[in-house]
Amino acid sequence: MLGQNQAGEWNLSTISKVGWYEYIAQYTFGSDGSIKPLLGATGDLSPVDYTDAKHGSAIGKGESDHAASHSHNVVWSVHWGLGNGTQKVEQYDAAPTGQNGSKSPIVEGKFTPIDTAATAKKADRRWWGVIAPDSLNDDGRPISYEIKLAASDSFTFVQDQHEHGGDTGYDVAFTNSKDCQVFATGNRGSCGDGVLDYVAHAKGEALSDVVSWVAVGFHHVPRDEDQSPMELHWQGFYLGPRGLLAQRPDIPEERKDLNGKPTHWEGEDVGSLVEPGGQ
């Protein structure tokens, strides 16, 4: 088949038993340069965390034995070693303009620089880029990676609420790397208690040696099938290369000349082709 190629992945995983659960930390490195961090949870529902119908799900006979709903909150610290020199951060957002084109509504997108330490929240059509402005690919553009969140639940650490109050949740945060920034919460040392302190203490400090703190929560509403052991439930995100190379690394031989707008496609002049579904 024209253009067929075989991609590969390398998986690195560890298993840890914490309380009633077993957690699988898994990192999948794709041949396209992508990285997919995931945390899977299995094991048993806590036998000491049963409650009423308002706060849990009945998993016993009839309407009995309400296992408490709860959250699995995970923060990944990603210290970027991208390119030679400093890095910068951008946030991409796209939104409908209210106008229609000939075939579909018009959506406009833009990049907004994040120049200093900051927190951010997920939204439709939003992702973040970490760029190495001094390291260019063969097309002359800065190499970068994008951070995309999978389906997840935003969350706030209880300890963060106690320390900072109010609406203190975040989905992604950006700081500069510092040795005393070890844990996302419950940290010790001069950097502060956690990510929110790291950001507050670095107010006005230009980002250069970037660390991304990616927070992904899972709100677990127990079900009958969680007994026992429960099926693995996963939470994680995606790091995708964006301009790391001028073309994909495993490009098929017959497609290597496709870099930019093609003049011909499978032997035909592009100008004579009709858009699928068009007239």
TrEMBL record:
Residues 11-249 form the Copper amine oxidase catalytic domain. It is an enzyme of class 1 (oxidoreductase). Its EC number is 1.4.3.-. SUPFAM superfamilies: Amine oxidase catalytic domain (SSF49998). InterPro entries: Cu_amine_oxidase, Cu_amine_oxidase_C, Cu_amine_oxidase_C_sf. Pfam families: Cu_amine_oxid (PF01179). Contains 1 topaquinone per subunit. Keywords: Copper, Metal-binding, Oxidoreductase, TPQ. Residues 253-267 have a biased composition (Basic and acidic residues). Residues 253-279 are annotated as: Disordered. The keyword Metal-binding applies. The keyword Metal-binding applies. Topaquinone (TPQ) is generated by copper-dependent autoxidation of a specific tyrosyl residue. Its cofactor is Cu cation. Belongs to the copper/topaquinone oxidase family. This is Amine oxidase. It comes from Arthrobacter russicus. The lineage of its organism: Bacteria, Bacillati, Actinomycetota, Actinomycetes, Micrococcales.
